[in-house]
């Protein structure tokens, strides 16, 4: 079989990092005073390991709901003599002022702080301690980092209402950051003077000012000899901006793209502007003009287009100004512009909305910092996966997984991403996916279900889980899946379709799994949840799939699991059984499921006395004559009674009906069944049937057991002959043949 790229095992480094982070106390650390983590004194870790520990920690806190963050985690890296940090990427709410403060003695080279909204101006002061080594810094989306708290003095009443006023810090600059080359200030708060802030930086190579409005960018020319990358996403441009950009002749990457939905925007891109860029920025290898409206025609009339294969040669370019390029661009961003639909585009990689390749390029380019664009790109991918066939399936899946992990709290991405996953994991793509990749899908789906109570996300996630082999593929997250599904089913207001899918999944999860799994799920409240659903449906007088699946799930979860059988009885399961029987006399499928479940209950000796009432015995006896679902209902009713008879005449604690009368009806029922009936039942073990063979107290029970075995091994020999032999059935049958108490027809069948 072909080995897939994504199927190679994780590196040993990754596995060890993951293990240590999940078991800090048992590996690198000990607990001081039962609360503070401390590094063992004999440990020294180089930056290759420490960087990975910190970055993986942030990733785990963000994407793994089971992982517990540690208050004192960052203090483990406070002393550069034992732990060295160089390049770290911190995100969102995970990091606070005191965490950065804890690592201030480290010689950081690269520090990315993305959307860290809890950081305040205290962290600006901490940044100064890295100023002599820092080469790359990102403060993208750190919306409070320029705010400090000011305590207004002596205002007793006001203090209660507003104990701290936030004040903008105006005097911070990058003075002393002598090695800083790469800086991202994306989404910087209004009111900070960018020019003053950056002025001390001698030689910037890359600058990102996404989402910042500056009328005058003339100060950028102070780096015209060093600046190779400039990002002005969503900045309102004007002619002045264009003139300044044209002077930055060393630029290799220029991004002036915008979100065309974000705001009214006067500036229009013209042929002249693009010509200006091509003539002046001779080193350009990457340009992004996504979201722009083209004011005048930048395209070559289709009559003059060179026909033939689509070409990346600038000379053939369908976009006129790009005919002046010396060589094709590495990347050209044309997402949500009319240009991406042209034939000849002089770039190796184009982001756009024309085809799968362009859409995937867009998701790849914009996921990290532009979720608003990414969600629209994923929506396009969703259409491609739904209507056509995805040709780059693995790449598409990886990109959607990354986007869902990266933007766990972004509703649009969770909705579109979870919908796309449903189509990308369905059966026609099955062969191309590795176990590792499919597990990643399951992880993000469960994350989505956990963080979003929103109906669409929940439905998409449940539907996606239906694309997996259950329970096998969900085994590694067994507890968690069940908890999430039960959580959905226990909500007071419920969406019909989600309820149906969730019950179906619950049923599949407890079918064909080990008893310890069933016991664990029973303890989570599974039995109670199913009975509540049945109760609701009964009250509405509806017998739909939810009703049938719920009984089926109870049948599965009670199989050879006495604890769950007992729960069923304790939560008035028998009362519901009788009510359903009365309310829905014609529903065969329902009767089969209910009696299958009662068969499981009857197998438990300690619980049988609870079935020994005139009402229950009469109901079971009457069901012997049922023709519902072939022989299934009659067969199961007879099975329940066979176990009860097996306890002997002294256990028959009722006057009506008489034991002999019921025995007679059982014989009549068994004789009426066709021995070659195909069956709607699945045995994992014959043990409950085999125990009825070596006894003379109830010949009819012995006959039912022998009939059951005979039918199963003759209709399904490949499946059941090995099981019969494995579980020691042969000697037991031989003994039946020799027994004097056994009926002649039972002996014949046993032989």
UniProtKB/TrEMBL annotation:
Residues 404-750 form the Protein zer-1 homolog-like C-terminal domain. Keywords: Acetylation, Leucine-rich repeat, Repeat, Ubl conjugation pathway. GO terms for cellular component: Cul2-RING ubiquitin ligase complex. Pfam families: LRR_Zer-1 (PF25013), ZER1-like_2nd (PF22964). Coiled coil: none annotated. Signal peptide: none annotated. Residues 196-337 form the Zer-1-like leucine-rich repeats region domain. Belongs to the zyg-11 family. Interacts with the ELOC-ELOB/Elongin BC complex. Part of an E3 ubiquitin ligase complex including ZER1, CUL2 and Elongin BC. This is Protein zer-1 homolog. It comes from Piaya cayana.
């Amino acid at each position: 079989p072909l080995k897939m790229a994504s199927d190679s095992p994780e590196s040993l480094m990754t596995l060890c990092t993951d293990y240590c982070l999940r078991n800090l106390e048992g590996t690198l650390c000990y607990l001081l005073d039962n609360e503070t983590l401390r590094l063992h004194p004999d440990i020294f870790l180089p930056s290759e390991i420490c960087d990975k520990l910190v970055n993986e920690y942030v990733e785990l806190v963000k994407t793994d709901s089971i992982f517990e963050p540690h208050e004192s985690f960052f203090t483990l890296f406070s002393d550069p003599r034992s732990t060295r940090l160089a390049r770290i990427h911190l995100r969102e709410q995970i990091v606070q002022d005191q965490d950065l403060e804890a690592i201030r003695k480290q010689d950081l080279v690269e520090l990315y702080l993305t959307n860290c909204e809890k950081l305040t101006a205290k962290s600006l002061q901490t940044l100064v301690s890295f100023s002599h080594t820092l080469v790359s810094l990102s403060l993208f989306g750190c919306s409070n980092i320029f705010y400090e708290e000011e305590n207004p003095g002596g205002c007793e009443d006001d203090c209660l209402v507003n104990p701290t006023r936030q004040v903008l810090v105006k005097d911070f600059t990058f003075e002393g950051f002598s090695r800083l080359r790469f800086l991202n200030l994306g989404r910087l708060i209004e009111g900070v003077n960018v020019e003053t802030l950056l002025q001390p930086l001698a030689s910037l190579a890359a600058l990102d000012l996404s989402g910042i409005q500056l009328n005058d960018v003339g100060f950028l020319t102070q780096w015209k000899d060093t600046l190779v990358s400039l990002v002005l996403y969503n900045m309102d441009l004007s002619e002045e901006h264009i003139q300044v950009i044209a002077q930055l002749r060393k630029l290799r990457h220029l991004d002036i793209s915008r979100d065309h939905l974000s705001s009214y925007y006067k500036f229009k891109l013209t042929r002249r502007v693009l010509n200006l860029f091509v003539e002046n920025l001779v080193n350009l290898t990457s340009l992004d003009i996504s979201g722009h409206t083209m004011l005048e025609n930048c395209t070559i009339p289709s009559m003059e287009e060179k026909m033939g294969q689509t070409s990346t040669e600038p000379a053939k370019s369908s976009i006129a100004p790009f005919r002046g390029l010396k060589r094709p661009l590495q990347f050209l961003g044309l997402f949500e512009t009319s240009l991406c639909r042209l034939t000849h585009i002089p770039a190796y990689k184009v982001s756009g909305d024309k085809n799968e390749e362009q859409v995937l390029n867009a998701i790849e380019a914009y996921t990290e910092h532009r979720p608003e664009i990414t969600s629209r790109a994923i929506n396009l991918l969703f259409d491609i996966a739904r209507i056509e066939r995805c040709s780059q399936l693995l790449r598409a899946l990886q990109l959607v997984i990354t986007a869902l992990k990266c933007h766990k709290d972004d509703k649009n991405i969770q909705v579109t991403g979870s919908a796309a996953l449903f189509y990308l994991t369905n059966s026609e793509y099955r062969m191309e996916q590795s176990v590792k990749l499919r597990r990643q899908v399951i992880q993000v789906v469960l994350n989505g279900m956990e963080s979003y109570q929103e109906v669409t996300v929940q439905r998409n996630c449940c539907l996606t889980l239906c694309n997996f082999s259950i329970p096998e593929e969900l085994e590694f997250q067994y507890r968690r899946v069940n908890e999430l599904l039960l959580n959905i089913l226990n909500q007071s207001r419920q969406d019909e379709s989600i309820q149906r899918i969730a019950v179906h999944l619950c049923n599949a999860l407890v079918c064909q799994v080990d008893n310890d799994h069933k016991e664990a799920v029973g303890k989570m409240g599974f039995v109670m949840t199913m009975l509540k659903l049945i109760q609701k449906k009964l009250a509405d007088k509806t017998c739909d799939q939810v009703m049938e699946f719920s009984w089926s799930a109870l049948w599965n979860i009670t199989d050879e699991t006495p604890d769950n059988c007992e729960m069923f009885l304790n939560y008035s399961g028998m009362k519901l059984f009788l009510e359903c029987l009365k309310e829905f006399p014609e529903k065969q499928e329902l009767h089969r499921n209910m009696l299958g479940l009662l068969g499981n209950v009857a197998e438990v000796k300690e619980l049988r006395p609870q079935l020994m009432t005139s009402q229950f015995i009469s109901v079971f006896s009457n069901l012997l004559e049922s023709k519902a679902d072939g022989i299934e209902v009659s067969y199961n009713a007879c099975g329940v009674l066979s176990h009860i008879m097996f306890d002997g005449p002294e256990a028959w604690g009722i006057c009506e009906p008489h034991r002999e009368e019921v025995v007679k009806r059982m014989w009549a029922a068994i004789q009426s069944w066709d021995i070659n009936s195909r069956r709607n039942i699945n045995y994992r073990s014959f043990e409950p049937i085999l125990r009825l063979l070596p006894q003379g107290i109830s010949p009819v029970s012995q006959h039912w057991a022998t009939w059951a075995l005979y039918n199963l091994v003759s209709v399904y020999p490949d499946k059941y002959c090995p099981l019969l032999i494995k579980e020691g059935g042969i000697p037991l049958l031989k003994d039946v043949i020799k027994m004097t108490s056994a009926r002649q027809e039972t002996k014949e069948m046993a032989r």
